[in-house]
């Protein structure tokens, strides 16, 4: 009296190998409805090609590790510097426009002449 399940029937395949009957693939139905395939796209791992080339060329692992660590930090620092310069340039343009507007409105004829001279100077620089 055993608690084990009944063994499945063993069949011989056309190529001569044996398999259990319950492990056979489902038959292909040509008129079956196509199945929807859900494909999950994942982010690729970081590319280590540069590190492998560097290690193969004879530089030490410490140098490669420093490049891996400080490379993104350098990119971040340069991006921050570029953003600061862009903000400062924008502020300089706004302040120059404000000065020209004030000089035009307050200065009378002398102010308008000075604003025209300033505008000509800017056009020549472009």
Notes on the protein architecture:
Helix 2 (61-106) runs antiparallel to helix 3 (108-125). 57% of the residues lie in helices and 5% in strands. The chain has helices at 49-56, 61-106, 108-125, and strands spanning 10-12, 18-20. The chain has a two-stranded antiparallel ribbon with strand order 1-2. The radius of gyration is 38 Å and the shape is elongated. By secondary structure, the protein is mostly helical. The protein has 3 helices and 2 strands, in the order E-E-H-H-H.
Cα-atom radius of gyration: 38 Å
Gross geometry:
elongated
Write down the secondary-structure element order.
Answer: EEHHH
Structural class assignment: mainly alpha
Strand content: under 5%
DSSP helix fraction:
55-70%
The helix count comes to 3
Number of strands: 2
Sheet with most strands? 2 strands, antiparallel
Distance between the termini: 100 Å
Poorly predicted residue ranges: none
Strand order of the largest sheet: 1-2
In round numbers, the mean pLDDT is: 77
Task: Please give the structural blueprint.
Blueprint: E1 10-12, E2 18-20, H1 49-56, H2 61-106, H3 108-125
Helix pairs in contact: 2-3
Keywords:
126 residues, 57% helix, two-stranded antiparallel sheet, 2 strands, mainly alpha
Characterize this entry briefly.
The protein is mainly alpha-helical and 126 residues long.
